[in-house]
Amino acid sequence: MEQRTANDFFRQPIFIVSTGRSGTSMVTGLLNRAGMWVGEYHKGDRDNPGGYFENKRIKDGVIKPILTFSGYDRHGRHPLPEETLDLPHEEFGNLIKAHLDADGYQYHVPWGFKDAKMVLMWPTLHKAFPDARWVIVKRNREDVIKSLSRARFMAQPMAGLIKDDSDFLGKWFDRYQRGIDEIKSCPEIEFYEVDSDQILSGDYSSLLRTADALNLRLNDERIRNYVKPEWWGRTVEERSSVVLNENGQTRLALNMGMNAGRGYILDNIQTNIRRQLPQVKEHQINHDYDVVLVGGGPSLAHTKDELKQCVDEGKKLVALNATHDWLVINGFRPSAMVMVDSRPENARFVQRPVKGCKYFIASQCHPDVFEALKDHEVYIWHASNGVGEEQILEDYYFKNFRFVIGGSTVLLRAIWLFRMLGFIKMDVFGFDSCYMDGNHHAYEQPENDGCEVQTLTCMGKQFQCAAWMASQFDDFQHLIQRFGDKFELNVHGNGLISHMMQEGAKLFEQENDSAKTATGG
Amino acid sequence: MNEAVVRKEGDDVDTTTHESEKKKYEAIWEHPRYRVHSPGENSLQAFLSIINPQPASKIVDFGSGCGRASLELAKLGYQIQMIDLTEKSMDDEVRTSVDNGFNGMRFMEGSIWDISVPMDPLSGDYGYCCDVMEHIPPKYVMQTLSNIMMRVEKGCFFYICFVPDVFGKAIGQPLHLTVRSFSWWKEHLSEVGEVLEARDLLTNGLFYVKAKGA
């Protein structure tokens, strides 16, 4: 392999950009752990708990002065240059080299610099570093605007402008997005796109591809150990509404949905996709029926009457794993069943399939599950776990497939799956995420016996949880925080999830009342 | 069995449908944009990787359209017979190749459901039928499938769209007349042969059907 010189490393930086509040810090932090040098940066604060990862010297000594001397806001807030800044570039390379030297860069690994403001002046940087690789971090407009409205660096100094112009943040986003689009349309620029929402949902494919192209060493485990959705997805105030007593422990079971080794899962996928089954695909919003997701949490046993009422109202029952048989035994008829777990013993959940029931089985499930359902209506879907399944699916389906994101348990995935199928309103039963009267399920499930139990405090109430329950709870909060506007959930029972939703709703009402009182409304 | 009518040899051809469909496609092929995108051309890689036909095999391109897929296959050394409702569908380069007899390429104008099309030379080792079946009037679907499978020794590769077309509005008529699901097509294809491959590609599907007795 060709040996790279110090000059090669200098001439080929990695520039990480976005429209702001898009997860660039998270991505830069990950690339930093993968071997990219970033130098001295601002550590975490309320707006960005994980750290900023933008080199202080380059930001303060190069990027901000470019904006200032061009007559714009040095922080990249307002005013912004209408035309992207294209300045003489001769000096910038030397200036940046001086800052790198001062920061102790040794020119033996790739160096990276992250700053969203670069999109306002990308031609200047491109001419100074024509061999640079650009990493574009994507996040949807709505979420970025929401995040900006909460971020101190924007919300407070720009409060007047935001008040005067309700679309101020939207226009701000659009200006940055225009810069991104210009970068992408420049034929001389080598760029890679990374989707931060995908990373937070456990799909690391775009990031792994990018790291690979940049010759950086990144793998699933390294990402999983680093990514904390509560850091990158919400502010500290929002996090403090839920107190977890063991820092970090809630992520222990992040990929519980896998429940098996990587090779094992990939083998299952390779086998199952060849069964000539229809894939689950997006549907229009369904206005005819609502669905009821039936999880196996202990409260299910105490909410049968409510469940029956849902059925009487014409709602369709969706069984998850073992609740399929529980429903049948208790006189209910499931319209659909979802399974994600790849362990072979889960085939026992489908030994008594129901005629007319639609079975939505993840491609990572054990082939015995599919075999048991060979005479029934089965749809195959794909859970994203970031273990290499994407390549298999791309090859087989010629890139025509959809991942179902959602989290660590079958219930979390089922919420997304049925949203994809067009269902907005969902009643949810047996979704507790805690022990109740010492039980982890409404029925016997020996696989979950003997789990270590931790105490978790949520809005003034204590709950006993296994690691997978805490993880599910954490994932659910993340799901609601990010995508809660895309579906309506009515969680039955009195477990941890139901408690959080009820208390959260009360808090929301109180805040609304306070706001009305304050404004005289 | 299904809603499509299985027509027997000797039945009259529905010339009204044949003629009206032919006129429709003569009109649509007048639009240069219609020939920009060729599903047949785009599916070639899948066909070659899945079927891996023997060198110099005879391939019938059923509903050959612009003919670019056929030309590519001819360049690879396969013997190509094309059939389409109208010869106006062919790209200029393809027409020239046919006129010059490039690698034995031949074109026949006709509808696939019209069994008056002579068996020879319209037969081969393999069939290639991309972006065609969804265009067939529903009542002729099974007849078309039967005709195709009757004319191939080994099997036929199908690439079928499951959603309505977007280009028909250019002539005020839908082009996709049989819009059905992956499962529906799989079930119907299994009536005319053994479905060895069936991949649901979300809005399209690809199938390889082995001829009976092959």
Give a concise summary.
Chain A is α/β, with parallel strands linked by helices and 521 residues long.
Provide tags for this entry.
heterodimer, A: 521 residues, alpha/beta, eight-stranded parallel β-sheet, four-stranded parallel β-sheet, 15 strands, globular, B: 214 residues, Rossmann fold, seven-stranded mixed β-sheet, 7 helices, disordered N terminus
Describe the overall structure:
The complex is a heterodimer of chains A (521) and B (214). Chain A has 521 residues and is an alpha/beta fold. Helix content of chain A is 41%, strand content 13%. Chain A has 22 helices and 15 strands. Chain A has helices at 6-11, 24-33, 56-69, 90-102, 122-128, 141-150, 152-155, 159-164, 168-185, 196-200, 205-213, 220-226, 229-232, 236-240, 262-272, 304-312, 323-329, 367-372, 389-397, 410-420, 467-483, 496-519; strands at residues 14-17, 112-114, 133-138, 190-195, 242-243, 291-294, 316-320, 336-339, 358-362, 377-383, 403-404, 425-429, 453-458, 461-466, 488-491. Chain A has an eight-stranded parallel beta sheet. In chain A, strands 2-1-3-4 form a four-stranded parallel beta sheet, sandwiched between helices. In chain A, helix 3 (56-69) packs antiparallel against helix 4 (90-102) and helix 6 crosses helix 9. The radius of gyration of chain A is 25 Å and the shape is globular. Chain B has 214 residues and is of the alpha/beta class. Chain B has seven helices and seven strands; from the N terminus they run H-H-H-E-H-E-H-E-E-H-E-H-E-E. The radius of gyration of chain B is 16 Å and the shape is globular. Chain B has a seven-stranded mixed beta sheet with strand order 3-2-1-4-5-7-6, sandwiched between helices. Chain B has one domain (5-211): Vaccinia Virus protein VP39 (Rossmann fold), CATH 3.40.50. Chains A and B meet through loops of A and helix 7 and strand 6 of B.
Outline the fold blueprint.
The complex is a heterodimer of chains A (521) and B (214).
Chain A: H1 6-11, E1 14-17, H2 24-33, H3 56-69, H4 90-102, E2 112-114, H5 122-128, E3 133-138, H6 141-150, H7 152-155, H8 159-164, H9 168-185, E4 190-195, H10 196-200, H11 205-213, H12 220-226, H13 229-232, H14 236-240, E5 242-243, H15 262-272, E6 291-294, H16 304-312, E7 316-320, H17 323-329, E8 336-339, E9 358-362, H18 367-372, E10 377-383, H19 389-397, E11 403-404, H20 410-420, E12 425-429, E13 453-458, E14 461-466, H21 467-483, E15 488-491, H22 496-519
Parallel strand pairs in A: 1-2, 1-3, 3-4, 6-7, 6-12, 7-8, 8-9, 9-10, 10-11, 12-15
Antiparallel strand pairs in A: 5-13, 13-14
Chain B: H1 15-28, H2 39-42, H3 44-51, E1 58-62, H4 68-75, E2 79-84, H5 92-99, E3 106-109, E4 124-130, H6 141-150, E5 152-161, H7 182-189, E6 193-200, E7 204-211
